[in-house]
Amino acid sequence: MGKGSEIKLIGTPPSPYVNRVQIVLNLKSIDYEFVEENLTCKSELLLTSNPVYKKVPVLIHANNPPIPESLIIIEYLDEIYSDVHPILPSDPLARAHNRFWANYMDTKFFPLFEELRRTPGKEGKKAIMKQIIEGSQLLEEAFVKFSNGKPYFGGDDVGYLDVVLGCFLGWTKFVEKHNEFKIFDEARTPKLLEWTNRIWSHEALKDVIPESETLMNFYMILMKYKP
Fold this sequence. Notes:
This protein has helices at residues 16-27, 44-49, 70-80, 92-109, 111-118, 122-147, 160-166, 169-179, 190-200, 212-225; strands spanning 7-11, 33-36, 58-61, 67-68.
């Protein structure tokens, strides 16, 4: 990640959405500069680069207008670097199905992690955990369909949905540990459990998925500013 690179990524290491972009940059062997953001005191660069949502990640490519939102960024990267490790399938229908499940992950499944954190009481948390488990079973079915007996959602190698789900592996383990339940296990989601072990060691994810200490520090910030 060199300074002065044509591509700059504004982000914070504990953010899975930032990690998502980093994974694609690694898959495509794209040199980039990481501009670390302090979300408790947002920089002028972030506020001017993403004035609508004021959130990370934001990609700045040369002198072009900044691009916010992780799914938009990774599709942009896939289009402009289409000759290196394409992540979306070429078939329009297959692309549409990939986008459907990515939308499910981002709008239905992952928000349950934050809902679990903010829900008070044992019974309330138990209800949210039940929803997470039900969601994981839907994702197991999706994996079986997309992988078609191969190692990844994308087939023989990491694809779009592998990136979208894989960026949450660190937080998945964190949520499991701190709530004493399993999101992916051998009984309910055997294929996804194998997949998590496989993708965790993929070269593109190394040095990207945060360590538990980094996540705990971020978790404490969330508890302070968004209890």
